[in-house]
Amino acid sequence: MAKYVIGVDGGTESLRAGVFDAQGRPLAFASSPYPTSYPHPSWAEQSPEDWWTALGAAVRAAVAQAGVSPGDVAAMSVDTTCCTVVALDAEGRPLRPALLWMDMRSARQAAQVAACGAPELRVNGGGGGPVSAEWMVPKALWLKQEEPNTYIAAHWICEYQDYLNYHLTGAMVASVDNVAIRWHGSDGPPLELLRRLGMEELSGKWPQEVLQLGARIGGGLTARAAAHLGLPEGLPVAQGGADAFIGVIGLGVIAPGDMAMLTGSSHLHIGMTDRPLSGKGMFGSYRGAVLPGVHVVEGGQTSTGSAVNWLRRGLMGGAVDYADLNAEAEAVPPGCEGLVCLDHFQGNRTPHTDPLSRGALVGLTLKHTRGHVFRGLVEAVAFGTEAVLEAMRGAGYSPTSLTIAGGATKSELWMQVHADVSNLPLHLTEVPDAPALGCAILAAVAAGLHPDIPTAVKAMVRVSRTITPDPQRHAVYRRLYQERYSKLYPALRPLFHAGHDHAPTPNGAPAVEEGASGQWAAAAAEAGEAARQGRQGEEGGGLPRAIVSPSILAADFACLGDEVERVLAAGADWIHVDMFDGGAIAGGNFTIGPPVVAALRKRAPGAFLDCHLAVQDPAKYVEAVAAAGASSFTFQIEPFLDAHTAQPDAAKRCAAAAAGAAELAAAIRARGMRAAVAVAPATGVEVVMPLADAGAVDMVLFMTVNCGFGGQSFQAQVLDKVAAARRAHPSLTIQVDGGINATTAALAAAAGANAVVAGTAVFLAPEGAAAAIGAIRGALLEHLPRATAAAHAHATLAAVEGAGPAAVL
Ligand SMILES: O=C(CO)[C@@H](O)[C@H](O)COP(=O)(O)O
């Protein structure tokens, strides 16, 4: 009878396969790096085909090294990074590279998800969020908003995990683990959440079947997969899950009260409980993420190993090794003779969930040595874990032990300090490769070598050592924690947040997501800059980006800053600022001037301020509006036409108006703003086309109501002008403004508008701004691709026939 099992850990940079016997003893391991990791220079992406290649190489090598015959292998299982999202066609072929878990492009979408207030969000932080850009829904929403063609074409949107299992077995299934922890799906698909985001269709793109860990997938290995791995066709494949959570099984942490602490550059705390819990400062609980009937709580620290690595490499240039640092730190008494450190070098994941928090060394004197600083950082990490545990205790979860794996197990000092600070015994297990062993356990269950996961864990995981806390040192640390460490963050928070609390990043998204490495944070910042300038989707003449710009004319002016923050958090792309001078062109309404724009810029430094000046003499305000911080300056064309009323020839009158307008547009651009021209409903499209043809403006705004007031009815006849402009300019940003809601946005998008201004429908939405923006954006995304595809076809035809853009109107 076949007696060996294969566990595969699909990590961030490589994939590692292990061959184990039914008692969990490893026979061999083999790793295979992904041949072309991060093929895209700016983002965290991976090629799914690389995963497949690496899987074949690692499994073959591990089986060969173990010296077992393929026929002696009873089953296999795979874990992968979680929230590495792929878009596939119906045959499982990737439509684009996968978005790796650490890809932070979806920071704005994460803020949008968090702001929608759906009941499925309640599991985290006692309902207070957060939602990370790492997770499935923000990433899928990013695809929908930024790459709508791919999103629409995707038959499947799923995880790295699901991709491999599909190619192994031919069955497209999801893991209960991923679905519960990162898809908001403890109780089935999060339908209300998706509805509020205007993306109900996503649940149809997800795998329809969700399997328990250890369940057999389909009919086992297909002939193609068997040939690729060198294993028998039909070999059972067991459902796996997220690497860290499968690692928890490999550590034997499955019973209520158990907690695993996975250490590396960061720390992850994953605990089991027999009842659902929710509280401030912790993630979860996730029902059944590992075992049916068991709930999982989660906490984390972003900078732990990376903080000591910063000291050794960053500060000391790697000139000292850890053995020396450990020895020097051992000689320093607990409390480091007055030095207390904060471990938030890359922000804090839990309990504070504050991406702006930072590390600190407080109480330095000239007698402190590098041994003090090293110990201070180790103590800070252990205190940080205590803060995580304290939040969990507050929610009703008190772990009885910590089972530890990863980098911290290499230092006796670290482990003892952790035990002493938390006052919990620390267990180490025999097999440090916990994720691969966790998969092997699931495979053993699928193969029938053990009847269930708890029995398999008992047979395959063994505690090799326990570190017990010292009561005296615990008492010292308890006092230090209460009197010093726990006071550091609240004291320093105002400093970390100074100048940041009001939208440090584009569109209200969090500045730096926890867990983002510098490279990815920089990429996110770069994206933010593109968002601020409204540049996405415009390069290369592609599909123009869908833009929702709430008009503050419908906001409560008594608390304008709060109102703007509210719609930014709800997912607004731009903020539309109507600056009317009270004249005829503004329908007699006198609204706001540059000082208000300056105040908004201060409050929302990263927001795109889309300023529309319905004024008789726009040139007069270019300086002041630029100085106030506007991102774009839209002026009406009518004053330029009025200046040439004496000209009887209509064509000449248009040309003269266009020349004057082009001069103004150039002055606007020279002051660093985008230039746009607006057309009243009664004004013909031919007046502004020369400006667009000459590339003199960045956007054309077709007013769908007469300027002046919000709440008017949409004038559908304007759409003929929109369609004409779109036919001539497939990639131009074309905006409509007035009477816009999800229904009229759909009409406008079908005609070719990609940007919409909506006041009443967003600020006064009874269903909330996030749902309103989501519905409007959904309408744009649904109808825009066909309009722009037709425009591209039309433009191509016109070019082939030798006609210029103006001729195709
Ligand atoms: O410029 C204007 C009106 O003149 C618009 O920006 C309105 O403020 C849009 O408001 P709703 O029609 O969406 O309420």
UniProtKB/TrEMBL annotation:
<dbReference type="InterPro" id="IPR000056">
    <property type="entry name" value="Ribul_P_3_epim-like"/>
</dbReference>
<dbReference type="GO" id="GO:0005524">
    <property type="term" value="F:ATP binding"/>
</dbReference>
<keyword id="KW-0119">Carbohydrate metabolism</keyword>
<dbReference type="GO" id="GO:0004750">
    <property type="term" value="F:D-ribulose-phosphate 3-epimerase activity"/>
</dbReference>
<keyword id="KW-0862">Zinc</keyword>
<keyword id="KW-0479">Metal-binding</keyword>
<keyword id="KW-0413">Isomerase</keyword>
<dbReference type="Pfam" id="PF00834">
    <property type="entry name" value="Ribul_P_3_epim"/>
</dbReference>
<feature type="domain" description="Carbohydrate kinase FGGY N-terminal">
    <location>
        <begin position="4"/>
        <end position="178"/>
    </location>
</feature>
<keyword id="KW-0408">Iron</keyword>
<dbReference type="GO" id="GO:0008741">
    <property type="term" value="F:ribulokinase activity"/>
</dbReference>
<comment type="function">
    <text>Catalyzes the reversible epimerization of D-ribulose 5-phosphate to D-xylulose 5-phosphate.</text>
</comment>
<keyword id="KW-0054">Arabinose catabolism</keyword>
<dbReference type="GO" id="GO:0046496">
    <property type="term" value="P:nicotinamide nucleotide metabolic process"/>
</dbReference>
<protein>
    <recommendedName>
        <fullName>ribulose-phosphate 3-epimerase</fullName>
        <ecNumber>5.1.3.1</ecNumber>
    </recommendedName>
</protein>
<dbReference type="InterPro" id="IPR005929">
    <property type="entry name" value="Ribulokinase"/>
</dbReference>
<keyword id="KW-0808">Transferase</keyword>
<dbReference type="GO" id="GO:0006163">
    <property type="term" value="P:purine nucleotide metabolic process"/>
</dbReference>
<comment type="similarity">
    <text>Belongs to the ribulose-phosphate 3-epimerase family.</text>
</comment>
<keyword id="KW-0067">ATP-binding</keyword>
<dbReference type="InterPro" id="IPR018485">
    <property type="entry name" value="FGGY_C"/>
</dbReference>
<dbReference type="GO" id="GO:0006091">
    <property type="term" value="P:generation of precursor metabolites and energy"/>
</dbReference>
<feature type="domain" description="Carbohydrate kinase FGGY C-terminal">
    <location>
        <begin position="260"/>
        <end position="447"/>
    </location>
</feature>
<dbReference type="Pfam" id="PF00370">
    <property type="entry name" value="FGGY_N"/>
</dbReference>
<keyword id="KW-0418">Kinase</keyword>
<keyword id="KW-0547">Nucleotide-binding</keyword>
<dbReference type="GO" id="GO:0019569">
    <property type="term" value="P:L-arabinose catabolic process to D-xylulose 5-phosphate"/>
</dbReference>
<dbReference type="GO" id="GO:0005737">
    <property type="term" value="C:cytoplasm"/>
</dbReference>
<feature type="region of interest" description="Disordered">
    <location>
        <begin position="523"/>
        <end position="543"/>
    </location>
</feature>
<dbReference type="InterPro" id="IPR018484">
    <property type="entry name" value="FGGY_N"/>
</dbReference>
<dbReference type="GO" id="GO:0046872">
    <property type="term" value="F:metal ion binding"/>
</dbReference>
<dbReference type="GO" id="GO:0019150">
    <property type="term" value="F:D-ribulokinase activity"/>
</dbReference>
<dbReference type="InterPro" id="IPR013785">
    <property type="entry name" value="Aldolase_TIM"/>
</dbReference>
<dbReference type="InterPro" id="IPR011060">
    <property type="entry name" value="RibuloseP-bd_barrel"/>
</dbReference>
<keyword id="KW-0464">Manganese</keyword>
<comment type="subunit">
    <text>Homodimer.</text>
</comment>
<feature type="compositionally biased region" description="Low complexity">
    <location>
        <begin position="523"/>
        <end position="534"/>
    </location>
</feature>
<dbReference type="Pfam" id="PF02782">
    <property type="entry name" value="FGGY_C"/>
</dbReference>
<dbReference type="InterPro" id="IPR043129">
    <property type="entry name" value="ATPase_NBD"/>
</dbReference>
